[in-house]
Specification:
about 200 residues, 7 helices, single chain, five-stranded mixed beta sheet, Glutaredoxin, Glutathione S-transferase Yfyf (Class Pi), Chain A, domain 2, 2 domains, alpha+beta
Length: about 200
Amino acid sequence: MKLYYLPGSCSLATHIVLREVGAAFTLERYDPSKGATETGAAYTAINAKARVPALALDSGDVLTEGAALVQYVAGQHPGSELALPTDALARTRVQEALSFVSSDFHKSFSPFFSADTDDAAKARAKAQVERHLTYLEGLFSDGRTYFVDDRLSVADVYLFVVLRWVEAAGLDLEAWPKVSAFRSRMSERPGSRAALQAEGLLDAA
């Protein structure tokens, strides 16, 4: 498999999951300013959406969308700690959490990574991020270690990646201590550290 990625972006979630399950894969960096990968390949020929992540399988198929990719990788390794639950309700809970992270929470940060976003839009986005963090703080305040059913899942990995962007919104995660503690725990996992190091981000984790 080959993962097309952009350091620190949402593709980091797939990268971490690949390392957590011990998958065999290679990396190829995408440069949005050039519209090409580090080998010079036109990225739209790989993913017409021109977004990361994209995962090229050995079969020649290419999968996209982070929430789908983390589930696919985990599903290929049923013996791993990140294996998807077999119980239908538990599995749906993980998918529910992934939907929140990949749609609502992730989307809230978009204005902070766009050069043409005005201050008013950033202020609205910041308020939205704060609401999501307060929701998460409430969840972790019940003593749980992980996001869903207090069991490590791919939703935790994706949540960790998005939480790394909080400072870009001008916020200090220490205002949400339970969430901050979760991010710190996840940053110390071997898969997280290996992926961060490979993307040149370990010092910023």
